[in-house]
Structure formats: structure tokens, C-alpha cells
Amino acid sequence: ASGNSSQTSCTQLMAYILKVMFNVTSVLLKASEDLLKQHYIDLKDRPFYPGLVKYMNSGPIVAMVWEGLNVVKTGRVMLGETNPADSKPGTIRGDFCIQVGRNIIHGSDSVESAQKEINLWFKPAELIDFKSCAHDWIYE
User: What domains sit in the chain, N to C, each tagged with a CATH number?
Assistant: First the structure.
């Protein structure tokens, strides 16, 4: 989910993600505080937790599901390091983030976490199973 980015940044992020040839499902929403607290439950004892929830609740969020070969591993590389200062140019955080506390994108750290987060943010009817027209050119 990318939080509080301008429309231009959001459009640039989506273009960046789509060029890697993932199937992407997305929804623009205003997350409730309860949803954000559930999403970041593993950070609840950290000192920055209240500020993170407040920041993420301050504007619209684009929740996304990426699908593709090795999508979690590839996605983590595309995101860059959690601290934007440690992220390489060409990564989302390296190009779009300045401060770790205003990180504009979250990525699941495992397939299991991704499934849990997908179930939290999306209703089953919002997820469409499809094969892109380029699928057979990209995958064996």
C-alpha cells in the first residue's frame, strides 16, 4: 500500500510497477484506523507506531496486489531498503522517499505475509484471476 503520495507520484509508481510485467490489482481507499492498526500489529510496541498509524490515516492509500514469478523477492528489490538513505537510485524508495518515517510504500516480506495482508485489504470479489496477453512471451 502506498500512502499519502500525490497523484503524480502515484501514477509514476504504478507505471514503474507495471513495466516489470506484474499483474496488478489496486484500489484507492481511505483506510480506517482499525485497519491500519491490524496491518501494523507487529509494530504496536515500537515507539513510532502511533505516528505511523496517524500518518497512514491522514490521506488516501493505494492498496495493491502484485502477481508474478518470484513477485515477493523481485518486489522487495524494487522497493529498496526500508531507510530511503540506504536505497539505491532506481528503486521506489531510492527515487520517491526521503525519510524513513514517511515511507510511501509497503511490501510484504513473504508469501505468507502477502496472503494475510491481501485478505486484510481486499474482498475476494475484488481479486480477478487473469492472464495478461504478454504472459506466454514472458513465462515458460
Answer: 2-122 (3.30.70.141)
Give ∠ CA 64-66-71 in degrees, rounded to 5.
Answer: 145
Q: Distance between the two ends of the chain, CA-based, in angstroms?
A: 30
Check: CB of residue 68 under 8 Å from CB of residue 23.
Answer: yes
Which three cell numbers, joined as nine digits, stand for 80? 529498496
pTM: 0.82
Residue 79's identity, in one-letter code, is L
C-beta atoms surrounding 83 within 10 Å = 12
Binned average pLDDT, 10 residues per bin, the chain of 140 residues: 54 78 84 96 94 92 90 92 93 89 88 96 89 80
Show which residues are catalytic: 106
Contact (Cβ atoms closer than 8 angstroms) between residue 27 and residue 89? no
